[in-house]
């Protein structure tokens, strides 16, 4: 089965029962189609060059053969323009699908992060945290008072109370 018929018929993909292809499958198919169309472009470009060479070869000697070659060249150029348009459309669709897939992954990961944050905060009580912070502040004040008391010089005999 040719690549084109596989593309349009679905190619027997395992994703039919799931309601559509995965983004990776769709991207792979779009890339395959791009590759096929690029090869077709190259083929048509060589055919155009060949027909142009035939037209030049026959030139004024055999006008009928030269005109036929130019007509074929014109048909190939028309096909080439159609393929260019199709490739542009496929590239746009592939880029849009890649962006959508990226956005979906980012959103999914943000959801996981939100769940993890919720789980972390699950065991925290705001009142307990406030009490703990007050305890810490009180202990820091006590430590500062102790430090101040130790660092002040003891006045042994320097001052007398008269």
TrEMBL record:
For this UniProt record, the keywords arranged alphabetically read as follows:
Coiled coil, Cytoplasm, Endosome, Membrane, Protein transport, Transport
Main subcellular location of this protein, as a coarse class: cytoplasm
Tell me the domain of life: Eukaryota
Task: Please give the biological process terms from Gene Ontology that the record holds.
Answer: late endosome to vacuole transport via multivesicular body sorting pathway; protein transport; vesicle budding from membrane
Keyword match Protein transport: yes
Location of the protein in the cell: Cytoplasm, Cytosol; Late endosome membrane
Q: Which InterPro entries match?
A: Snf7_fam
Protein transport in keyword set: yes
Q: How does it sit in the membrane?
A: Peripheral membrane protein
Q: Where is this region: Disordered?
A: 1-24
One GO cellular component this record assigns the protein to is: ESCRT III complex
Q: Which Pfam families match?
A: Snf7
Return the Gly residues bias intervals: 9-20
The similarity comment for this entry is: Belongs to the SNF7 family.
Q: What is this protein called?
A: CHM4C protein
Q: Please tell me the species this chain comes from.
A: Chaetops frenatus (Rufous rock-jumper)
């Amino acid at each position: 089965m040719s690549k084109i018929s596989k593309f349009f018929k679905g190619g027997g993909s395992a994703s039919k029962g799931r309601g559509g292809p995965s983004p990776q499958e769709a991207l792979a198919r779009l890339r395959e189609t791009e590759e096929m169309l690029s090869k077709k472009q190259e083929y048509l470009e060589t055919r155009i060059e060949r027909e142009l060479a035939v037209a030049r070869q026959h030139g004024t000697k055999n006008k009928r053969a030269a005109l036929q070659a130019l007509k074929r060249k014109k048909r190939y150029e028309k096909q080439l323009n159609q393929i260019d348009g199709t490739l542009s459309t496929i590239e746009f669709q592939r880029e849009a699908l890649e962006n959508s897939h990226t956005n979906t992954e980012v959103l999914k990961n943000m959801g996981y992060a939100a769940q993890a944050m919720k789980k972390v905060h699950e065991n925290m009580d705001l009142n307990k945290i406030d009490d703990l912070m007050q305890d810490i502040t009180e202990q820091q004040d006590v430590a500062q008072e102790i430090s101040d008391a130790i660092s002040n010089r003891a006045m042994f005999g320097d001052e007398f109370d008269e």
